[in-house]
Amino acid sequence: MRLWCFPLFATCLTLGVQPAQARPGRKRPPKPPITFKTEAEHVALVKAGKLPGYFTKTDLSKPPVLSAPSALLMEFDTGEVLYESAADTRRFPASTTKILTALLFVENTQPEEIVTCKNLNITKIEPSTLSIKPGERFRAEQLLYGFILRSANDGGVVIAEHVAGSVPAFAQKMNARAAELGARHSHFVNPHGLHNAGHYTTARDLALIARAALQNPRFADAVGTPKRTISRSINFKDLVVASKAKKGFYDVVLGADGVKTGFTNAARHCFVGSVTRNGRRLLAVILNAPRSAVGDTVPLIEWGFARYGATTVAVSGQRAAWVPTKLGAEGRVAGVAAQTVHITQDRLHPSAVETTVMPTTNTAPIRAGQEVGTLVVKRGGTLVARIPLQAAHAIPRSVVRSTGRSPWLWISLGGGGLALLIVRQRNLERTRRARRRRRPTVAEPL
């Protein structure tokens, strides 16, 4: 040790201060909290990504303050939009693309179908990946879990080639399916969302795609549990897959049940989040957030549940209305709702909810489960939902009602005709007897 170090060391001992290297594991003091004086300063910090989004609990009339430039909140049952900001602006979706890829996968495979990786360059795909090897085999359901929870780009390529034969052919299917769902401002060129200038969507389009995907039980099951153990044929060391939103969303938000994170340098932070409480589900989309898309999703959904209540107008599998029938053994049939529907009610401006039955077909015979009408729901005079109604049971055709008239009419007509016939016959008999009595008597000869 050099001589000039001794005075410094002695000073440390005298003052009771230990040298830094003598205190291993010392934690740095926490950073002081960010403070602000005005609401404008608070908003500026949120927009800069230095603070998470928020909403004012004491004044729900104010929309939430978010960092992302594009956002949308949707009532899942009806598709009604509760909040939107630049929802039709084109944005790069990053890995939220995988929602559409997974939807096509479940629509074109069976759960136990075997999917084999035939791509010899699969190991060159940019992470994140499942480290899939050429020739590796998965059951379709296991690949779905690994793909959507790990956000596995190599899994997307394997899915695309299995479903369509190639990535370009699969991209064509993606665009066609998106258009069917009403997502007409999007264009997809790959199944994983790695950056491409021609690969884009909007918050509204992505909400439509996610809503359709969540209506598929296999997809909903895949995203509903944020951590899974999968089975595979080659790589036995990589079996546990978990959503990247597990800690910040699934483990924090009551009722969180999906859906997908995304990030690239060009897309920034993206997230599609779903929360279900008391049977009611809200769906949020956040695109291009500077720091935390989940940090915007949580206050947006919480504001939605706080500001908007819901009225249940139909429960799946239960009678929602009576539908009149014609030519049937019964004059009406119970119309069972094909789905559960909650109608949003703005707690600050409630409106009356009205329902009307519009028969689709009501002429017997009617099969059980046959669509017989639509329950039209209006809130404050505005159409908000159309719910298909299915026959609760079969209604056979009635012979006596073949003309659509009441059977009592036929009974009355038949009885009346028989009575007239009897009266007429009696009158004829009376007339004959009277004629015989009026005939003159001829005298017999002596």
Descriptive key words:
31% helix, disordered N terminus, 446 residues, elongated
SSE topology sketch:
Elements: H1 5-15, H2 39-47, E1 70-75, E2 81-85, H3 98-107, E3 114-116, E4 137-139, H4 140-150, H5 153-164, H6 167-180, H7 203-214, H8 217-224, E5 227-229, E6 240-242, H9 246-250, E7 256-264, E8 268-277, E9 280-289, H10 293-307, E10 308-314, E11 319-324, E12 332-337, E13 341-346, E14 353-359, E15 371-379, E16 382-391, H11 407-438
Antiparallel strand pairs: 1-2, 1-9, 3-4, 5-6, 7-8, 8-9, 10-13, 11-12, 12-16, 14-15, 15-16
Helix pairs in contact: 3-4, 3-5, 3-7, 4-5, 4-8, 5-6
Question: Could you explain the architecture of this structure?
Answer:
With 446 residues, this protein is an alpha+beta fold. The chain has eleven helices and 16 strands. A five-stranded antiparallel beta sheet has the order 2-1-9-8-7, with helices on both faces. A five-stranded antiparallel beta sheet has the order 11-12-16-15-14, with no helix packed on it. A hairpin with a 2-residue loop joins strand 8 and strand 9. It starts with a helix and ends in an 8-residue tail after the last helix.
SS content category? alpha+beta
Q: How many E-type strands?
A: 16
Shape: elongated
Order of helices and strands: HHEEHEEHHHHHEEHEEEHEEEEEEEH
C-alpha termini separation: 185 Å
Determine the fraction of residues in helical runs and give it as a percent range: 25-40%
The stretches of 5 or more residues where confidence is low (pLDDT under 50) are 1-22
Please tally the helical runs, counting DSSP H or I stretches of 4 or more residues: 11
Mean pLDDT: 87
CA-based gyration radius: 36 Å
Binned strand content? 15-25%
Please list the strands of the largest sheet in the order they lie side by side. 2-1-9-8-7
Which sheet architecture does the biggest sheet show? 5 strands, antiparallel
